[in-house]
Each structure stands twice: as C-alpha cells, then as structure tokens.
Amino acid sequence: VHGDSLRIRQTEVMKALTKGMLHEVIDYCGCTGLMMKESKVESEYTKAVPLPVSLFPCCVPAPYFHHAIKVQPTINTLVEKLARDHEMIHKTLTPFAGIDDFLKRLLEISSKYHSYKHKQDVYLGIIRSDYMLSADQHKLQMVEYNTIASSFGVLSDKLNSLQRYIFQRFPELFPKEFSIDRVAPHNNFISNATSSFSTCIEMYKKKRGISTGDKHVSMAVIVQEGERNVYDQKPLEIAAFEKYGIPSMRVTLKEAYENGKVDPDTGVLMIYGKEIGLVYYRAGYTPNDYPMEVEWKGREMLECSMAIKCPSIDLHLVTFKKFQERFSNEEYVSKYLLKEEASKLKDMLIGFWSLMDRTPEIEAEIVNAIKTPEEYVLKSHREGGGNNYYSEELRAVLEKGIKEKTGLENLFLMRKIHSPTVNAHLFKNGEVKYTEVVSEYSRFGIFISDATKVYNSIDGGHLLRTKAANIGEGGVASGFAVINIPYEGEYTLDAGKIKLPEIQTSFRSTIKKKKKKK
Question: In which element (H, E) is residue 159 found?
C-alpha cells in the first residue's frame, strides 16, 4: 500500500458484513436512485441495478482539489471562445474529415448551421475536465475534456450521501483519524445545471417575444436507444420541472426527426407538437448514435433551428482531440486567453501529439513508445470511451501503422500519467472487491453565452472515478470504473513520488508496507 495506511482489524469489517452492510448499501442505492439499467436494455421496464461505486472515499490532496476549481473558469473561457471561432474549428479539423466520415458529417452540419437564417447564437456548455494526479510531476495533469453529454454529475451527489450514510451507520469501520468534514461537499450539480436550463429557456422566450410566465416551452433531452444512464439524467428533468416549470421529453435523434419539424419562417422547433426552447444532448457523440441516415437528418434539424443547444454543433466539435493538442501551443491559445490564464492551463498539460503530423519530434516519440509502450497511451480522435490502446496493443498498432504506412493518421499519442495508488473497496455487480486502484478527478464547468458576451461561467462540481490500477480505460457506463467521492487528504513524498494516505478500511487484518528501495 502506498502511503500511511489507516486501517482497522479484519474482524470489524467481517462483523459489519454479517450485520448486513452489503444489503444496506444495495437497498440505499435502490431507494435513492443510485442505479443504472442493465447492460442489455430491452424495454422501458428493463431491470435497474446498483451503480458501480466505491464504498469509501479516496484521497485527493487538498491543494490539487482546490487548484482544479480555480482553473475550471479558464477552461470554460477557452472552450467557449474557441467554439465561437467557426473558421478555426474548420481549419483545424478539416484535414481529418477525409479519414473520418463521422467528423465529416458533423462539419457539414456546422457549415449548414452558419448559413441558416434563424440560427441560434446562445450557447449552453456543460463540460467536464478530467485529470489524474501525477506521482512523478507532483501535480494534476489533464487526461481530456468533454463538451458533450458529460455524465455522472447527478449520481456523484447521490454517492456522496451514501458514503456519509455508511460512516454514520457503521462508524466502527472508520479509523479515528477520519473526519467527515474532509469529505468533499455536495457539488450541487442538479441545482447548477437546472438553473442554467431555466436561464436558457428565459433567453429563448425573450428572443421569441414570449411571456416569462408562459410554461409551454419545453426541453428535449436527446438520448440513446435503450439508454442505461437514465438515473443520472432524469433527476435533472424532474428538478427543472418542479423548480422552474420546464416540461421535458426524452427522444432519440430518430424520434426527434420523425416527430419534429422546423418552421421555415421562424425557425421554431416543434417535437410531438411541443415548442422546444432547449435541446440537451446526452447522445450524439459517437457514430453508434447514427446507425442510419435518419439520425443525421435529426441532428441537422435540431441544429438548424431556433432552439438553444447544449452543446451547439461547434461546441461539440471542440471536444475532438486535435484541440487538446493545440492547447499546448502558446501562440494558438493566446488568441483566446490572457497570458496568465494560459500559463495556468499549460502547467496541467502533458505530452500529446497528433500522428497525422509526423515531425521529427513526433517520430522520436513514436520510436520511444514502441520501446516503452507502458509510458504512453494511444487515443482516438473521437470522444466516447473504449477507444484507447495500451501496452503491447499500443506497440502492435504503431508497428502495423509504420509498416503499412497508414492507419495512424486519426490517432494521438499521449504520455501516460502515473498516478499514486491506494487500496479501495469497489462495489460492483452485487460484490465488493478490495483491490489496488487509481482515480481520475474531474471538474464540471457550466457557462452560458451569446455572440456578444458570457452571461454565466462557473465551476459546476466534481466527479471522482476509481478503477483497478491494472486497467487502462476509465468509463463507468462502459464497465471499467466506479464512481467515488474525493476526501481532502494530505500527502507525503517518498523517493520523489507522491504517497497518498489510505482512508479505506481493510478486509485483511494486516497490510505490509512496501519496503523502500535503497
């Protein structure tokens, strides 16, 4: 175990299990909606199961926890300004359109949007920045950022309540050094997100000349066919209706097109006979969401309407990995950020290279990655999870691409972030496993703007995802990780590397600390 282990005797944990602790957790998840649909969704009534979670929080050192909060408004600013730069978006991404039909279609919709006479210039961004703590560099480093369908803000809050409940219900499991006050506070994601929904609906009404008190303007939530993550989505719809009177509907891109239309004279979007003022995408970020042409027609119809989109087509395009690479270019970023802001962001970036641009520097990184694949990650241009290559698979892909002189153009090589490990109790599929883990710490950002100004830009809360240390991917819905809650702990340095305190309890009566190498 890395760090000073705060642990209890095995007998105490076993007592809790025999008293029904696992059943308490399962029942709590069911009663509070800390759930997700089973992987094979056959109908609206498909069985729901508890969400994969960690039973106890994991340490995020306080300086890094608060630093990410301070940086998030800067990321909001950069993403918002870049999303307004239509020419730069197309200049940056067009080279990839020839090898990526998905990107090509999105760029075509963007061009049509900008030529549309009733285009909506209000943007709502609900984005998420993902980091890992580098044990070597002693700082947070960016894994990626997401501008579309950023998930688990709602369920993170629900897990916060579960972990506090476990502390209150089974206090004997926790070491005396544990303080509930150091568990990250509730992030109020529901309140932050629904407030932004309300603001956008009111901005839409004002532009349309509709009375503020008029409650007929609806929100359309775009979801995947057989959506599993409904429990992270529906609470937002319920809260938006209960607090702000905003009715909503859940539709796929296909359903939106087949039951919707746009008035050519006003640009008003109607779906199922209801006027839509806000389109909130929880789908549309992967080619799998466009199995037929009708889905593309649905996306184009939504974008070329007066409804405000979260995100707009251009804000969606900013999520592609080429922009993450460009963030390391000071000249590129200086167009959108002040020098002081740019330096804050640059300090959190790690080596990230497009393999379309085979400069001598990048060729050297490729050679090095083949020699030491454990030091790199190979990423797809697209968002969505499950698109990365690690270790021997990474080496094989690079070697094949070099031999065949093709196949690497849409990939990005990234230095691997080596994060400190601790042991954790991961609850998944009705079982608890005690294993060595690493965590990915995220901040949500929310902003509202139009072509002239930014009306609101805030840090929207946190998310922590924890996974077994030997797993590369980090998606919860895709089955690789569990969600967790940060514990603002201290840390020590050992041989120049960060050591995190382990606040998890132990199934073993003793844990031997690793001996320091001489």
Answer: helix 153-169
The sign of the CA dihedral 327, 375, 2, 475 is positive
CA dist 435 and 420 (Å) reads: 14
Q: Is the peptide bond before 311 cis (omega within 30 degrees of 0)?
A: yes
Tell me the sheet residues that pair with 353.
Answer: 413
* CA Rg value for the chain: 23
Q: Phi first, then psi: what are they for 195, rounded to 5°?
A: -65, -40
The tens digit of pLDDT for each residue in 91-140 reads 999 999 999 999 999 999 999 999 999 999 999 999 999 999 999 999 99
Q: What is the pTM of this model?
A: 0.93
H-only helix segments in 19-61: 21-32
Residue listed under structure tokens 């965590």: 439
Chain centre to alpha carbon of residue 464: 10
Strand runs labelled E in 199-284: 218-222, 248-251, 260-262, 269-271, 274-281
* Collapsed DSSP state (helix, strand, coil) of residue 375: helix
Residue-wise pLDDT tens digits, 149-188: 999 999 999 999 999 999 999 888 888 888 889 899 988 9
User: How crowded is residue 504: how many other Cβ atoms within 10 Å of its Cβ?
Assistant: 27
